[in-house]
Design goal:
about 425 residues, alpha+beta, UDP-n-acetylglucosamine1-carboxyvinyl-transferase, Chain, 2 domains, four-stranded mixed beta sheet, 23 strands, about 25% strand, globular, binds uridine-diphosphate-N-acetylglucosamine
Length: about 425
């Protein structure tokens, strides 16, 4: 168990660099299944979820490891691919399921455990499966495994009822090696989808329209080894911005693509917090109180669900009442009871949290239920008076952030492993 003791009420000040995007690294590493030979992927954050996908690749017969000499670089040697992904890894991290498209495309057969439920909702994979079936796969569920078969995938028109990030990525990967043309309607537009498309294009795939609602893919016979550097993590950037705001600090956050965090920037500005953009640096300063603001999570370019818990922590200290509505996941308010233990005044009404701003939070023992809930509690602890003991049984914070505690401590926080 990871236990962190946070001594709060210390403003964060200074400069900090954002790491590579976890949610781009995971599908891009999965996509290397389709790229024979030696590839090199740079700017990969060193965190537990990436270690899990690397272990999935190894279990499939691909050699994958962090470089000893170049930081944040993963070297891949792909000379064979097996078709079965291991149960203990896929059930540990939902994104491991995203290997289904690549394995199916290269092997004609993929056997992947059905991911279990998780703290933030049931998170089914029906949209992935519907998309792969449209490309000609026969998909069955046997003994807890999803088994997909297709001697040759064929391009097709696919339309998603919801713009699922993972399903867009699964189908785009499978379509890259299918025969003929695929169009994905109502596709997810997240920057990580675009990054995956750019990786595949560099490896020889023919993809247009990534980042729009309609992605068109013309299948090619094979992909070729590639060197690629992934985008900065917009959710880490947003989390750092919220940390500056909630501690009444002053941060220069470097290595940011501001366009990717526009919704977060706008929302912070709406509360009256000063946010300035200078190229790839975001300056954020909060030396005063700030106003309440209503927010609704939506697929990109809307306000990200992965920023909702952190923003809720911040709004718990705003002047006035905010309504935070969650429209992407059905059960993403596990942080609320913990925030209440710290003195926040929050009520849950259906899929909305009614947050009445309070003057201060006070440190308390709290439990982490999922990754972004953990970030929200850490931010609350940084702002709270006294000590907050964060119990993170499943190491969620290490799963999704690279050196977050070290980064905060370098900016003036006082966080110790307990
Ligand atoms: C990705 C991100 C995650 C983020 C989420 C939404 C990665 C590795 N993870 O997750 O951090 O919170 O996007 O921005 O990139 N759904 C279905 N059926 C499906 C697929 C999804 O009903 O087949 C539902 C989910 O239960 C959820 C919603 O669609 O309610 C969004 O899920 P999706 O966009 O697929 O998220 P992920 O790709 O799993």
């Amino acid at each position: 168990m990871l236990k962190l003791l946070v001594k709060g009420a210390k403003p964060l000040r200074g400069e900090v660099m954002v790491s590579g995007a976890k949610n781009a690294a995971l599908p891009i590493l999965a996509a290397t299944i389709m790229v024979p030979g030696r590839s090199v992927i740079r700017n990969i954050p060193n965190l537990l979820d990436v270690v899990t996908i690397i272990r999935v690749l190894r279990a499939l017969g691909i050699k994958a490891e962090y470089s000893q000499s170049a930081p944040n670089t993963v070297n891949i040697w792909n000379y064979q691919v097996k078709h079965v992904a291991p149960y203990e890894l896929v059930t540990k991290m939902r994104a491991s399921f995203f290997v289904i498209g690549p394995i199916l495309a290269v092997k004609g057969l993929a056997k992947i455990p059905l991911p279990g439920g998780c703290a933030i909702g049931s998170r089914p994979v029906d949209i992935h499966i519907k998309g792969l079936e449209a490309l000609g796969a026969r998909v069955e569920l046997e003994h807890g495994f999803v088994i997909a078969r297709a001697s040759k995938l064929r391009g097709a028109k696919v339309y998603f009822d919801f713009p699922s990030v993972g399903a867009t990525e699964s189908v785009m990967m499978a379509a890259a090696l299918a025969e003929g043309e695929t169009s994905i309607g109502n596709a997810a537009r997240e920057p990580e989808v675009v990054d995956l498309a750019n990786f595949l294009i560099k490896a020889g795939a023919k993809i247009e329209g990534a980042g729009t609602e309609e992605i068109r893919v013309v299948g090619v016979e094979k992909l070729s080894p590639v060197e690629y550097s992934i985008i900065p993590d917009r959710i880490e950037a947003g989390t750092l911005m919220m940390a500056a705001a909630i501690t009444k600090g002053d941060l220069k956050i470097r290595g940011v693509i501001a366009e990717h965090i526009e919704a977060t920037i706008r929302k912070l500005q709406e509360t009256g917090i000063q946010v300035g953009i200078d190229g790839e640096t975001v300056n954020i300063k909060n030396d005063d109180g700030f106003k309440a603001s209503d927010v609704k999570t939506l697929p990109y370019p809307g306000f990200p669900t992965d920023m909702q818990p952190q923003f809720t922590s911040l709004l718990s200290l705003a002047n006035g009442t905010s309504v935070v509505s969650e429209s992407v996941f059905e059960n993403r308010f596990m942080h609320l009871p913990e925030l209440r233990r710290m003195g926040a005044d929050i009520k849950l009404e259906g899929q909305s949290a009614i947050v009445n701003g309070v003057a201060k939070l006070s440190g308390a023992p709290v439990r982490v239920t999922d990754l972004r809930a953990g970030a929200a509690l850490l931010l609350a602890g940084l702002a709270a008076e006294g000590e907050t003991l964060i119990e993170d049984r499943d190491h969620h914070l290490n799963r999704g952030y690279e050196r977050l505690v070290e980064k905060f401590n370098a900016l003036g926080a006082d966080i110790k492993k307990a």
